[in-house]
Amino acid sequence: MSTNIDRNTGSTGRSIVGSAELFGRGQRVITGGNARLSVFQRPHPIYIASGTGVNIVDVDGNNYLDFLNNFTALIHGHSFRPVLDRLHHQLELGISFSGPTKLEVEFAELLCRRVSYFDQIRFMNSGTEAVMYTIKAARALTGKLKIAKLEGAFHGGYGPIEVSLDSAPANWGPRSAPNAVPYCEGTPEWYTADTVVLPFNELGATREILEGNKDKLAAVIIDVLPQRAGLVPIDRSYLAFLREFTARHGIVLISDEVMSFRLSYHGAISRFGFEADLCAFAKIIGGGLPIGAVGGPSQFMLAFDPTNGKPLVPQSGTFSANPMSMAAGIAALESLSEQSFQRFDDLGEHACSSLTEMFRRERLPYSVTGMGSMFRIHLRPEAPKDYREAHAAPEQQEKMGMLIRALQERGVIVSPTCQLCLSTPMFTDHIDEMVTSVREAAQMVEAARLENLGGQ
Ligand SMILES: Cc1ncc(COP(=O)(O)O)c(C=O)c1O
User: Fold this and answer.
1) Atom of ligand 1 nearest to the CA of 131
2) What is the pairing mode between strands 55-58 and 63-66?
3) Which of 108, 177, 221, 391 has the maximal Cβ count within 10 Å?
4) Which CATH class is domain 81-334?
5) Distance of alpha carbon 196 from alpha carbon 192, whole angstroms
């Protein structure tokens, strides 16, 4: 993988003309050339042709080690045989129906067995939808409107919860009382008025903010490992406080585990020894197909219950609980044992310590955060503690873009924020190979930076 590098230019000689051509064609008919902002890349993204296990192949025939796995959704990597077999079987029986299937009952039973506080589940098609329904339920159950969220945390595309997703030094306000900053142009004023932004892991300041809003708060939504906020785990004492405070004041505690559900066999918040009132989860439970789900104790899930008339929160969806997603999800989760998660922890630890040690040895001013099967590389010598420290200034973003492209040229795929995740077909060899590529890519980026500085 890292053998064909030109010593003078750093180029690996990979051709991506097919991707360039598809981008050109795409731009004519798809705004921006491809249909997901998260995979948009300058000068253009690589277009993927196929994937098997830990590898993907692009339309030009280049091979890559996939450390992104469709943004953490593919916990078994690509073309996982048990998922494919289940899907082939279901394909013959029917793709979707206007009626429930046995599969959704079986899948809900499986999930309720694994997560101790789940009495019931509702299925939908994305993490965004799952988060949206938890918020609607919290508002309906409490009769209150405000939602508190952690600064910088990403919870999907539901408007009211996008607030302060990408706040910056110019608008984020004091650290102990962050501003509610709109994300999109045209954001209604009430989105920011009804969103309370909490400083991550800052217990004293958070207590003060929550005290001031407790009578108006419907929910506090957290992610125990917020990716965009630095992929720093929540402090146990901070979580303990949030759990106790919300329970005492009749506020719904929502755990967004769309990404972090892959932290443990029993769900993410359970790994910290706590239970949420409602959990929004997605990604790995779809086995690679679109999915979202809400789970929790019956007294919260009753918000969706139609058995005694119109529910507080009507929830439907043409493809909700479609049998293909259910079949793939069951196959994916049945292949994940408690040992699979232990193995992820061990491999993740190996990856983080190898990267940290390599950065130290090579005197590269980089650091690593993460937990379990997910970790993130930061272009700063000290690991960040929260969103503000993880926030990259424009010149750092540019450097990050260079690093990501250099990694791609060496055959390693990571996220636009340099997040990486593991899949079950990965072994230490794959991790060691990734660490070598990160070293080469980082050295190239640093050399280019020094050259630029020298030229100024
Ligand atoms: C924590 C979190 N919440 C919500 C979402 C939205 O999920 P989806 O992309 O399935 O709509 C994501 C997506 O990455 C996420 O990471």
Assistant:
1) 4
2) antiparallel
3) 221
4) alpha beta
5) 8
Q: How far is the CA of 44 from the centre of ligand 1 (A)?
A: 23
The rounded distance, in Å, linking the Cα atoms of 273 and 307 is 33
Instruction: Give the distance (Å) from ligand 1 centre to CA of residue 394.
Output: 24
From ligand 1's centre to the CA of 178, what distance in Å? 23
Q: Where do you find CATH 3.40.640.10 in the chain?
A: 81-334
Angle subtended at Cα 452 by Cα 451 and Cα 456, rounded to the nearest 5 degrees:
115
Dist. CA 171–CA 179, nearest whole Å: 7
Residues 149 and 196 sit within 8 Å (Cβ to Cβ): yes
| Tens digits of pLDDT across the chain (456 residues) | 444 554 444 456 789 999 999 999 999 999 999 989 999 988 999 999 999 999 999 999 999 999 999 999 999 999 999 999 999 999 999 999 999 999 999 999 999 999 999 999 999 999 999 999 999 999 999 999 999 999 999 999 999 999 999 999 999 999 999 999 999 999 999 999 999 999 999 999 999 999 999 999 999 999 999 999 999 999 999 999 999 999 999 999 999 999 999 999 999 999 999 999 999 999 999 999 999 999 999 999 999 999 999 999 999 999 999 999 999 999 999 999 999 999 999 999 999 999 999 999 999 999 999 999 999 999 999 999 999 999 999 999 999 999 999 999 999 999 999 999 999 999 999 999 999 999 999 999 999 888 877 765
Ligand 1 touching residue 286 (CB < 6 A): no
Please report how many Cα atoms fall inside a 13 Å half-sphere around the Cα of residue 152, on the Cβ side: 25
CA neighbor of 120 nearest in space, from 112, 129, 130: 112
Q: How far apart are CA 330 and CA 320, in angstroms?
A: 15
Minimal-distance CA residue to ligand 1 atom 8: 127
245 Cβ neighbours under 8 A, 6+ residues apart:
207, 210, 214, 220, 251
Q: Is the CB of 128 under 6 A from ligand 1?
A: yes
For 421, the token pair is 């995740």
How far apart, in whole angstroms, are the C-alpha atoms of residue 154 and residue 12? Answer: 34
Q: Please, which residues bridge with residue 55 across strands?
A: 52, 65
